[in-house]
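Subject — a protein and its fold

Tokens — whole-number codes for backbone shape
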Amino acid sequence: MYPIEEIMKKPVTLSKDATVSDAIRIMANKKIGRILVSEGQKIVAIVTEKDMVFFLLNDQSEKKIEEIPIQKIMKPVLSVSESTSIKGCAKEMLENGIGSLAVTEGDKIVGIITKTDLIEYFAKTQSGKKIVGEYMSPYYAWAYSDTPLYDIVSKMVNDKISRLILRDHDETPIGILSFSDLFRLSLTMGNQNKIVDDTNPSIPIVFPRKGFVSKEGFGGTIKASQIMKDEIVTVNYDDDLAKVCKVLIDNKINGVGVLSSNGVLIGVLSKTDIIKAIAFLN
């Protein structure tokens, strides 16, 4: 196996004095799912995309996101030494339910390794060894596309999932909604003190911001279909797992739908499923 220093990345950091708005913009611009938080020259915490959405869901203030300090969201960062094996990193992520680890040299953090880094490793080294069906999840969470955003995100939080398949009322899967989509929404609406629902032009309704997707705010009126991606990236049950890793990487997504030989959606394959494969490599 490659040593982890060959696949780890230089960490992106921001100051402990930054705001939620600062963190979201950096994540969106750099297309990353986490940032390490520094105090002076020392890295002291981490903020992830998932932590951000969980916080903004439950935030009941009417503050703009540019007024909320990052310290309200940041968490301790878990780390491994640079001598840790790739399998060891995968097991650490699974055991702690996390998507990244800081890499240390002595007492100094010198890098970060993410699920994506491990999946890139799998794509390069495990061609033809595993198929999708061995590791896919046969259950997938779903909701109707006309469900209010508040209910959608509440389900994602309660079920601890990062994406949801959306169906029409003929039970046909028509789209997917992920935390990344919610991030984009937070950038456009999270800094507004008031949100106007002009779905019916003759009766405009004004909501206070009142949290990212609170029932009292725009989360109660925006439908999932308004921000979902209307194309579900899919793969086949018998596809080579290493090739599917490349599909995830090339499309910058965290999961794909899995189709049966008859073209029916029978499950999903996520980055976490692939991390399980890495953790138990021979």
Q: What stands out?
A: The chain has eight helices and 14 strands. The longest helix spans residues 20-30.
